[in-house]
Amino acid sequence: MALLFNEEQQYLKDTAKEFVQKNAPITHFRELRDSEDETGYSQELWKQMAELGWAGILISEEYGGSDFGMMGLGGVLEETGRCLVPSPLFSTALLGASLIEIGGSSDQKEALLTKIAKGNLTIAFALEEGPRHSPNKISMTATKKGGKFVLNGKKTFVLDGHSADLIIVAARTSGENEDQSGISLFLVDPDSTGLERKRTQMVDSRNACEISCKNTEVEEKNLLGDLGAGFPIIEEVLERAQIGISAEMLGNALEAFDRTLEYLKERKQFGAVIGSFQALQHRAAIMFAEVELTKSSVMGALNAIDENSNDKARFASLAKFKAGETLHLVSSEAVQMHGGVGVTDEFDIGFFLKRSRVAEQIFGSSDYHLDRYATLSEY
């Protein structure tokens, strides 16, 4: 298994790094946060990302994408993670594109994937219903009524859901609350009658919303995949999502670590730079080792998806667990090593701690994935 990018993948990653640093540094994130922008990201920047081909990295060439795989998208997510870039890249190019690529009919793929690849369609995935990740705990109902389904229920923490052009909703068409069978996926117009979106103010300024449906009607043709058989699609997409968010978290950790090292080389106390203090050197060495282990975990997981490994589920949980633990450590140490200024809004380092605490919970905490890895390993 390759734990290094090949030449083409490295070129894509380098291009992403150059583009992000030039067009979307952390000052861009700060400006969007302070302006309380309704969309939460720059639509012009997203258009430029799509023109670079990022929106179609996971989409096959037949529908206008590059089919460059998770290794390609992972490198881009790492670089956007370094600068906390607000965009629909994760929700649309990874979640949305994967759901349609895996579960969609040929007509749905033709109609939707081509628009995604061009940057003309953004998508949100409405899955979670509680405070913790539990993908099969679906209580939103979809009741058949003639040639339509009627949705009733609520969804929480829908990434980019407040601004998405299309929402993919997981709802229960049969079975009990926690059954894996009986879950179906629907393509829902956010302007549908009875559907309401309420933007969620996250501590890290990540774009998310709550969605409620009250007798919201969906045409039968907008069923994604087979009736009652949505969970296997969800599982496969979640593996990609867990690995993708891990790549982004790796980028967060790398940037926080690099910024901390620079600060240790500049800040002086008692007539010496604090980086010369042995205690801080030891703590920095521990961070370095953990970041390197996380790199290997994430690269292995990205490669497992592209190779369709039988162990990709375990790789996904390993990557998400390790990325969560490492980012928690590095972001906490980064703020502490910056001292009092680390908790002020004037310094950017605090953004990484806030992002860490939210990202850790997306699609399963470290505790969740530690338990899942053990279960998959038959412990």
Keywords:
alpha+beta, 379 residues, Butyryl-CoA Dehydrogenase, subunit A, domain 3, four-stranded mixed beta sheet, Butyryl-CoA Dehydrogenase, subunit A, domain 2, Butyryl-Coa Dehydrogenase, subunit A, domain 1, four-stranded antiparallel beta sheet
Account of the 3D structure:
The chain is of the alpha+beta class. 51% of the residues lie in helices and 16% in strands. The chain has a four-stranded mixed beta sheet, with helices on one face. A hairpin with a 5-residue loop joins β6 and β7.
Instruction: Please give the order of strands in the largest beta sheet.
Output: 1-4-5-8
Helix fraction by DSSP (H/I, runs of at least 4): 40-55%
- Unreliable runs: none
At CATH level 2, the architecture of the largest domain is: Up-down Bundle
Instruction: Kindly identify the CATH topology of the largest domain.
Output: Butyryl-CoA Dehydrogenase, subunit A, domain 3
Output the CATH homologous superfamily of the largest domain.
Answer: Butyryl-CoA Dehydrogenase, subunit A, domain 3
Task: Give me the oligomer status.
Answer: single chain
Give the strand tally.
10
Write down the CATH class of the largest domain: Mainly Alpha
Shape: globular
Mind telling me the C-alpha Rg? Answer: 21 Å
Figure out the total of helices. 11
The biggest sheet amounts to:
4 strands, mixed
